[in-house]
UniProtKB/TrEMBL annotation:
<dbReference type="Pfam" id="PF03151">
    <property type="entry name" value="TPT"/>
</dbReference>
<dbReference type="GO" id="GO:0031969">
    <property type="term" value="C:chloroplast membrane"/>
</dbReference>
<keyword id="KW-0809">Transit peptide</keyword>
<feature type="transmembrane region" description="Helical">
    <location>
        <begin position="372"/>
        <end position="389"/>
    </location>
</feature>
<feature type="transmembrane region" description="Helical">
    <location>
        <begin position="102"/>
        <end position="119"/>
    </location>
</feature>
<feature type="domain" description="Sugar phosphate transporter">
    <location>
        <begin position="100"/>
        <end position="389"/>
    </location>
</feature>
<keyword id="KW-1133">Transmembrane helix</keyword>
<keyword id="KW-0812">Transmembrane</keyword>
<protein>
    <recommendedName>
        <fullName>Sugar phosphate transporter domain-containing protein</fullName>
    </recommendedName>
</protein>
<feature type="transmembrane region" description="Helical">
    <location>
        <begin position="243"/>
        <end position="262"/>
    </location>
</feature>
<keyword id="KW-0472">Membrane</keyword>
<keyword id="KW-0150">Chloroplast</keyword>
<keyword id="KW-0934">Plastid</keyword>
<dbReference type="InterPro" id="IPR037185">
    <property type="entry name" value="EmrE-like"/>
</dbReference>
<feature type="transmembrane region" description="Helical">
    <location>
        <begin position="218"/>
        <end position="237"/>
    </location>
</feature>
<dbReference type="InterPro" id="IPR004853">
    <property type="entry name" value="Sugar_P_trans_dom"/>
</dbReference>
<feature type="transmembrane region" description="Helical">
    <location>
        <begin position="274"/>
        <end position="293"/>
    </location>
</feature>
Amino acid sequence: MICSLKQVGVSFSCSDVVLRRKQSNPFQSSLLLPSIPKGKAERSLVSVHKPLHLSSPTEKFSTSNLPTVNTRGNFIRCEAFEADRSDIEASTPSEAAKKLKIGIYFAIWWALNVVFNIYNKKVLNAYPYPWLTSTLSLACGSLMMLISWATRIVEAPKTDFEFWKTLFPVAVAHTIGHVAATVSMSKVAVSFTHIIKSGEPAFSVVVSRFLLGESFPVPVYLSLVPIIGGCALAAVTELNFNMTGFMGAMISNLAFVFRNIFSKRGMKGKSVSGMNYYACLSILSLLILTPFAVAVEGPQMWAAGWQTALSQIGPRFVWWVAAQSVFYHLYNQVSYMSLDEISPLTFSIGNSMKRISVIVSSIIIFHTPVQPINALGAAIAILGTFLYSQAKQ
Ligand code: 3PG
């Protein structure tokens, strides 16, 4: 923006001396205007990168604590501060474009997730080593991003120690949530894991209420009744119920609520994009998970299981493993690109809605037997998620 000020008989510009001083509001600065040679003052202009608001220099003799400058006997004090960007953005017509962009992200995210779930379950049916498959998903994503950075397809993020320190708890939550969900899916039907995982908003409310001290309107709490009731009904009527599978999905819910809250905080005000943030998260999670995967399952079991799977399925098995790993990274990457633009709550709701497509497609593809009462429980839970999103709005 270009700005200039006029004092009676003298015009002067902001370009001559701008003294920036950090105040309680980091976007606010003081602008001190010294006496200015007249010829120069009339010509000069100031350019700044961000819009400035200038307060009017109405006081000739300032009595405030703020600094003043004597210009030919007159004291002038004026302040400049950057305009609040949100005011500018809210008033632009880009809102519709942003909504469209988020809608496209959501559609891609859900489609990639369906494909991931199908290949993941195919792999786990033939090769029941969820700790290794979880590790491979992270390794594949990390490798893809390292190659993208090295070849400059994607610009590498500029990170420091503080960034990785802040990322660590997110990575721990991501690792736990990922392994727990994969262990769950190795024990029960994909649809069952996702029905239980549709209870994630309930976990979000409980964590926000009791750990973050946030309170919600009564309708939000009421919407948890169908979510919890529906999940419970679906669980007790599940034909293939397995406690490890159930607990894995529950642990994953809890871990992912923390992951989303910490992620959003970590991404706020950082120059790292959603895509790169998820890439760094994958790398750190891989480092955390690998020793545990080796300890829990180990190379001997993996090698023996691999031979068995190859002999049963043939070379297609390798492609399934590759597909589940690649699609895992892609759907998470797109989901983080969405999280970059939306609140953790909207993210949780989008995630719950995604589960409808996963539940339906996996029931069709894997011919999962479903009793009417079981389907009713799932439908109630999903309806509860919808009510929750309405109550939140
Ligand atoms: C995983 O392996 O991380 C889970 O399958 C992902 O669960 P999500 O549907 O909550 O992303």
